[in-house]
């Protein structure tokens, strides 16, 4: 680990001032500290924001939900409002990491965590995300766990957050604050596909902070859930995952929200699947037909072609569970 200065501001304006000067924000530290220890990240200044007033889970008008950026993963998953209104969020959080890490990690930090690509974390390997222009070792290397959707010649790394998949499906909004004031960004626009600039991972401006994520009100009743498929039962990242939310009224699917994880360079919204569902009656045949579109547009690599079928089966299973016709 390289030397750095450490500050712990007691107010949001003080934190923004420190961030504007080039400081890296840290809360739970479950991602940044690891990367600093591995010398993947070498910030000159670390700004501890854990004491800022950016917590709390509150209901918004019409049945939405606002979760503060510094709420821990554990507290968010356990919160009555979250568990009752949006179980897909609770399930995504509880299927993440270990209990000890969930106790430490914040909602904002979870969204901003960086890829678990082994080449990104190996400073001897070529990685455009870590060192722009150096190449992508994963494309010709061992790429079993890498992305099949949203990839580019520059990067094929997956985004690791389970929570982000649920927030993508639910059309969440990210609330930000910076030197120019506050703003909001749709979650689907917040995490960036790599394209030719994989080192630009999100829409944050220099010095900006996430203050909260907000889930808008959805039609009721709303059934939702999260399914994660991985190599072992716990403490493992997804090979594929599916976040599903369905509003079924009068025996007809009125609204369908479906997103996938473990397969995209960002959490991947499955619009083609959604289009197959809306306006139709739930049946096992419908789930299978809709899930057949889950991998539309995929570009598998040498070792991850199995994700094509695995993604379709994961989505079909979760549609059956959430839709209630197994």
From TrEMBL:
This is Xanthine dehydrogenase YagS FAD-binding subunit. It holds the Pfam family FAD_binding_5. InterPro entries: CO_DH_flav_C (IPR005107), CO_DH_flav_C_dom_sf (IPR036683), Diverse_Substr_Oxidored (IPR051312), FAD-bd_PCMH (IPR016166), FAD-bd_PCMH-like_sf (IPR036318), FAD-bd_PCMH_sub1 (IPR016167), FAD-bd_PCMH_sub2 (IPR016169), Mopterin_DH_FAD-bd (IPR002346). Gene3D superfamilies: 3.30.465.10, CO dehydrogenase flavoprotein, C-terminal domain (3.30.390.50), Uridine Diphospho-n-acetylenolpyruvylglucosamine Reductase, domain 2 (3.30.43.10). GO terms for molecular function: FAD binding; oxidoreductase activity. Residues 1-220 form the FAD-binding PCMH-type domain. Keywords: Oxidoreductase. It comes from Actinoplanes italicus.
């Amino acid at each position: 680990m390289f030397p750095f200065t450490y500050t712990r501001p007691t107010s949001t304006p003080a934190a923004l001032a420190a961030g504007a000067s080039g400081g890296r924000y840290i809360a739970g530290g479950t991602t940044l500290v690891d990367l600093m220890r591995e010398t993947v990240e070498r910030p000159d200044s670390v700004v501890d924001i854990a004491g800022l007033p950016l917590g709390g889970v509150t209901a918004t008008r019409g049945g939405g939900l606002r979760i503060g950026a510094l709420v821990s993963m554990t507290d968010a998953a356990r919160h009555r409002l979250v568990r009752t209104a949006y179980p897909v969020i609770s399930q995504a959080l509880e299927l993440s990491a270990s209990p000890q890490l969930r106790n430490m990690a914040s909602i904002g930090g979870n969204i901003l965590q960086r890829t678990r690509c082994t080449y990104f974390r190996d400073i001897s390997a070529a990685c455009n995300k870590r060192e722009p222009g150096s190449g992508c070792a994963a494309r010709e290397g061992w790429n079993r766990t890498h992305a099949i959707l949203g990839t580019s010649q520059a990067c094929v790394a997956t985004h690791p957050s389970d929570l982000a998949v649920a927030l993508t499906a639910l059309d969440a909004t990210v609330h930000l604050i910076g030197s120019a004031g506050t703003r909001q960004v749709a979650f689907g626009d917040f995490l960036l596909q790599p394209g030719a600039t994989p080192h630009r991972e999100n829409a944050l401006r220099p010095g900006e902070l996430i203050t909260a994520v907000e889930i808008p009100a959805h039609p009721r009743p709303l059934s939702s859930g999260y399914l994660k498929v991985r190599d072992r039962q716990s403490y493992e990242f997804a090979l594929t995952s599916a976040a599903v939310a369905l509003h079924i009224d009068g025996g007809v699917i009125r609204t369908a929200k479906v997103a996938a994880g473990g397969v995209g360079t960002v959490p991947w919204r499955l619009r083609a699947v959604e289009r197959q569902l809306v306006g139709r009656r739930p049946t096992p045949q419908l789930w299978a037909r809709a899930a057949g579109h889950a991998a539309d547009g995929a570009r598998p690599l040498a070792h991850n072609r199995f994700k094509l079928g695995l993604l379709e089966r994961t989505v079909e299973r979760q549609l059956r569970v959430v839709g209630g016709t197994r």
